[in-house]
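Kindly go through one protein, given below as sequence and tokens. The question is how this chain folds according to its tokens.

***
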Amino acid sequence: MNIYSSNLQKLEVQRRQLEHLWQPTTPAQKIKQASSNLLRNAGQWLVQTLTEGDQLRIWTTETSEGTRWCVRNPVDDMQHQFDSEEALRVWLEQRYYNG
């Protein structure tokens, strides 16, 4: 076998692999992918729900006025927003000591 025929065989294998990758998926494959994504998302939600408990969730958002500090209490599903980290800290301390 010469180098030319060896290269042709490699190219043929690559062509078949690429054709296989670009073939449209069947409806059964689409359903399998969708159900897999649904189960993955449900599992992530379940883990998050079971592990977070009643802990506060704190995050920041950027607005045209600057950074907003947000907090959500999962116990009463209340959300609060603050203009500064210091304001958030004051609220947290009051909540902790009065609470």
User: Anything to note?
Assistant: The mean pLDDT is 85. The chain has three helices and three strands. The first strand starts at residue 57 and ends at 63. The chain has two domains: 1-52, 53-99.
